[in-house]
Amino acid sequence: MNQGRLNILWISLEDTSPRFGCYGDPVARTPNIDRLAREGCRYPNTFATAGVCAPSRCAVVTGMYATSIGGHHMRTTHTNLDTPELPTPYEIVPPPYVKVFTEYLRAQGYYCTNNVKTDYQFKPPITAWDECGPEGHWRNRSADQPFFAVFNTTVTHESKMWPKEDEELKTKPAEVVLPPYLPDTLKAREAVARHYDNIAEADAYVGAILQQLEEDGLSDNTVVMLWSDHGEGLPRAKRWTYDAGIRVPLIVRWPGHILPGTVDDQLVSLVDLAPTVLHLADARPPAHLQGRHFLSDNPNKRSYVFATRDRYDESYDMVRAVRDKRYKYIRNYEPNLSYQLWIPYLNQHPIQMELWRLLEEGKLEGTAARFFGSGRPVEELYDCELDPYEQANLAHLPEYTEELHRMREALEQWRAAYDRFGEVPETEMVAQMWPNGLQPHTAKPRFIRIDAGSSASHALEEGTIPRPALLQLHCSTQGASIAYKLHDDGDTGWSLYTGPIRVPEGATQIRARAIRIGYIESAETTLQFV
User: Fold this and answer.
1) I want to staple 100 with a disulfide (CB 3.0 to 4.6 A). Which of 128, 287, 310, 512 is the partner?
2) Measured between alpha carbons, how far is 1 from 174 in angstroms, rounded to an integer?
3) CB 503 within 8 A of CB 469
């Protein structure tokens, strides 16, 4: 059992706002999550960088805002026969130095597993994970090897609110609290009750993982982080930059370092997760990462968090938002657009269907009716402390001029630093990444035999040579990572190349592949030994 280096466990949820007992929700049935909070710390001011999964998860795994690397549209793999003009599907091609941050952990000897969702706006490179699939688990690592394990449950996804045949809701629809921008109808209440049932199921999943950690004697040496990729899958929540779409739960348990049952109100962005994990693992984050280490003894605390909205599925939009602990500022760059853009997937939601029904019948009222009106304000400003549902826009009131200007300036500074692709048309961006509409290929890796008695060295793609003592691997594609295997046992167990390889006695071959994010993986090369 590894007692030296910290293990790190992520449990990620989908489409989940903090509707937990530990966040004060009396309807929630979340005993395992509540226990985790009692044993650790809640971070109630935690926010996603986008209100949908792919841009949000892109930021999480790269440690970079999706707008800075072209991953801000939802999603790059999208296809719809009715919108053939879109430049999708494609994979983003970020700058060559950008990696899935787990490569830095693997380089430090960590066993990294993902079970099972990715949705990064690019295919996960073979070099990112020791295991990426439904069998991924820390239990598959070598003895005494530290691990970083990710478990993703999809049971709370928006689509799980669709009615199920012969279902029996355990949460009573009459007990749920509906936000004021949703219609108070039986179908709406049933959808939210269904979501509470799904959260209870996710809680059982959390409990099972934590129980396995306990059974393996690893709880005391493992940092556990529970979070969601964005807010709940309700209209005016998911896909939007309002708190319902971007405020997420975050609970961290770190025995001996974090006081049990505490609450830390510092602002945290999900882009902070990667640099924080790297610091915990004593793997110094590279300079290009854009988040902050929020678990530091002396954290460089945020003054603001930022969020975006761009093309989601079929429809283009551009919204930017900044929030501090009290105020939210939203800029609508296309105020001529309706809030109700054509997103067929959203229109399957039972509450969205209720909204359309009430609109057709002339019965839609209040905030819900405004959300179905024409146009939007250019700027929105909300006091989230006094107005948690963000109903009263204060941007036009003179008494809030100072706050408006301060938040506006904060957003402009962030955009100048991190919104590289925000105003670049998607077709132009893809043309830069995929010249002539073709996905670039990663070059085949080559083997270089090191001969200490000679200054000569030659690169080999494949062939048969006497077993060398040392080998180097090389790929001529800028930014490519290389995976290799010294044993022939199928397509799992690839190692990350980080430096010269000492070839063990008895080895009969070495296999290698190279990959740069967004590129097609290279062909495999094999060198045989005699």
Assistant:
1) 128
2) 49
3) yes
CA-based nearest residue to 113, from 140, 93, 86: 140
Question: Residue 528 pairs with which residues in a beta bridge?
Answer: 464, 509
For the question of residue 384 being annotated catalytic, the response is no
CA distance 381 to 395: 5
Q: How many CB atoms lie within 10 A of CB 235?
A: 25
Which residues are CB-contacts of 98 (< 8 A; sequence separation ≥ 6)?
Answer: 62, 64, 69, 288, 479, 517
What the block records as the tokens of 130 is 């020791």
Out of 41, 53, 132, 475, which one is annotated catalytic? Answer: 53
Question: What percent of the chain is modeled with pLDDT above 70?
Answer: 99
Pairing of strands 41-42, 250-253: antiparallel
Do residues 131 and 113 lie in contact, with contact meaning Cβ atoms separated by under 8 Å? yes
What SS3 state is found at 202? helix
* Beta pairing partners, 180: none
> 120 near 54, Cβ under 8 Å?
yes
d(CA 321, CA 214) in angstroms, rounded, equals 41
Chain centroid to CA 94: 16
Tokens 């057709």 sit on residue = 360
Peptide bond into 116 cis (omega under 30): yes
Overall size of the chain counted in residues: 530
Burial (CB count within 10 angstroms: exposed 0-12, middle 13-18, buried 19+), residue 506: exposed
Q: What is the per-residue pLDDT for 3?
A: 53
Nearest to 31 by CA among 220, 262, 201, 233: 201
CA distances from 210 to 183, 222, 279 (A): 38, 10, 23
Single-letter residue type at 129: W
Residue-level pLDDT at 1? 40
pLDDT in tens, 130-161: 999 999 999 999 999 999 999 999 999 999 99
Q: Which amino acid is at 301?
A: K
Residue-wise pLDDT for 188-205, tens only, equals 999 999 999 999 999 999
